[in-house]
Amino acid sequence: EAGVVQSPRYKIIEKKQPVAFWCNPISGHNTLYWYRQNLGQGPELLIRYENEEAVDDSQLPKDRFSAERLKGVDSTLKIQPAELGDSAVYLCASSLELWGETQYFGPGTRLLVL
Amino acid sequence: AQTVTQSQPEMSVQEAETVTLSCTYDTSESDYYLFWYKQPPSRQMILVIRQEAYKQQNATENRFSVNFQKAAKSFSLKISDSQLGDAAMYFCAYRAQGGSEKLVFGKGTKLTVNP
After folding, report:
1. Looking at residues B35-44, what average pLDDT do you find?
2. Smallest Cβ distance to B107: which of A31, A42, A50?
């Protein structure tokens, strides 16, 4: 079974530039999560999707971050414009929307904003 | 709000020895889940072990076991017969009951395994 796929693995951009991350969850997983992991910290949730619906985006900085999950499968997270403080690892995870199901993580995208 | 605390930023162990990583959490819920994830330098977060709060029996997965103390809100991870491949960041995580609730992570413990 293929795991969660993310691309790109690394991205270096200058501040004020836009950037986008892509995630393909495990087949059949209807719940998708985007987490941000700052250096030396544990991941923190940015947004959670159940199928196509964003059910928890309270931690998403909506002035510059946006996300979408078309057709309830792949998802894209965008930052525009990027700031120096956005440098982090962006992790995507997926799970079945069932009681007690485990979240499976992708390899992440390391973003460096110069 | 739920919080997870890992008080050991770094730990080291000799190969083949046993090490215990500590984790405490704060919640007012009675039903929830606890997890230990491993994150090697490649960054892939891998599930090590999980515990359902309603279960009194401590979870075990091969060389990995937990000591779950619900009243004390403590959830430690014991790694037996440590191997070089166990070197990684270890994150303790809490999740409220529900189909797709978010994970709340601690700050992690960096485990070094010495040959």
Report:
1. 89
2. A42
